[in-house]
Amino acid sequence: MATGQNSKPPAESLKRKFMPEGPDHYDSMTALYAHEVEGVNFTKEWYRHRWRYETFKNYKEENEIFIMAPHGGGIESGTTELALAAAGFTDDFNGKPATSDTYDYFIFSGINPRNQNGRLHVTSSHYNDPVANELVRNSLISLAFHGCTDTQPVESTGSGYKACLIGGLDKPFKQKLKQRLQKAGFNAFITTQKELNGDLPDNIINKNKRKAGAQFELTTSLRKSFYGINNPGGRRTSTNADFWLFIDTIRKSIEQYKGQLPV
Fold first, then answer.
1. Alpha carbon of 87 to those of 20, 27, 69, 172: distances in Å?
2. The whole model's pTM is what?
3. Which pLDDT does position 61 carry in this prediction?
4. Cα–Cα distance between 78 and 80 in angstroms, integer?
5. Domains of the chain by range and CATH?
């Protein structure tokens, strides 16, 4: 059952000493799902590649790369489209990645009226959606797309600041992403800023098989710059060259990093 916007559920006992408290309306995805209606307030989509086993048969291993947009749609706008493209699912886009590889993904999108999606933000260390957690636990490499305002980074020069802040616990992957994105011309750097660096062990993106993932915090102006029409109906069909340069750089980083991991 959905409740009114100002009806807040009781706080759940999920907080731990290494989880900073935040202003979220809901303390978990469980609480959110109990009060919001799928298809009315939010949508979800996910994809897991087929996994097959049979004695003496040599089937291809299950995909072990996971892409996530936990706060897509109207929550952190533009991250839904970025995550889909990074995962290689672009049938309804005006372009496509340079390679055809596809990855597992999970996307949660807020679809409330404008300025009413903030209550759907559940911090990544409280993100207990069972499907999202199963997908990340199955992966070796995990990457999440988040959005921040232009002025949240301490490095910000003010409104219009375009930056990709790289966080998470996967240090070699973060370095790979930083080097390639910088070489491609993006203002990308590894952040140590507490509220943006994604370094909590309970951050869902850090729950893969290696207990270390990566995440982007993309400023509003950077996200807007990727689309000619920056609204839910227009983004996928108005992506520009910078969007695809960003996506292809990320995907090349993933494939190169995957090749360096122990078999």
1. 30, 28, 11, 20
2. 0.89
3. 66
4. 6
5. 38-46+61-260 (3.40.630.100)
